[in-house]
Amino acid sequence: MGELLMAGPAWKLVAKQKILPIDVILLRQEVFPNGVQNRQDVATLLALETACYDKCPQWDELFTKSIADYVLFAEGEKGIIDDAQALWLKQCLTRDGLTETKNEFATLVRILSLAKRAPSSVASLALDQITHRIYASGANRRKIEDISDDDRAILIDLNKIIDVAKKFSIHEHLRAVGLAQLIDAPEFVDEEQEQEIALLYNV
Prior knowledge:
Order of helices and strands: HEHHEHHHHHHH
Largest sheet: 2 strands, parallel
Radius of gyration: 18 Å
Structural class: mainly alpha
């Protein structure tokens, strides 16, 4: 990503590895007074996200909303993500194809939810995260009522993806529905979707 230049308040947060509500106020006032303006600003947010292990809810909102707003409204045509932006998003928000923090994944879902048009690769990237979490947690081997509270977050995320994936690719939408079937979450699958799955996969 090249040399990262950060304003003083941001460096201090990296050093203490903690972000409090007052820190978010200072970031808004001193580091991002006009919001996120360029990719260097995005890099600063990403550096803080990965360096600080103790973060307040106000930071979560700043991170996800700022990056999503920049991608959707400051670069290119408003609400439209092109192939180059999709590739850049993957490079920014994932390492070896996987997000490492909940905020990185939440940002990806927010962008998908608000985008008017995006390559199917963005929806596919979001589903890759869900798939990894399902198998890593073992949720695919347990009934819905037996999974942990942490694993139930997978269902919330999956439900969001099911809602938005169809905008970009019927195949990604059906893949999302198939994941819901895999983890025995019938409330996320209706009869029409089951028929679509059967036709797509010839089952």
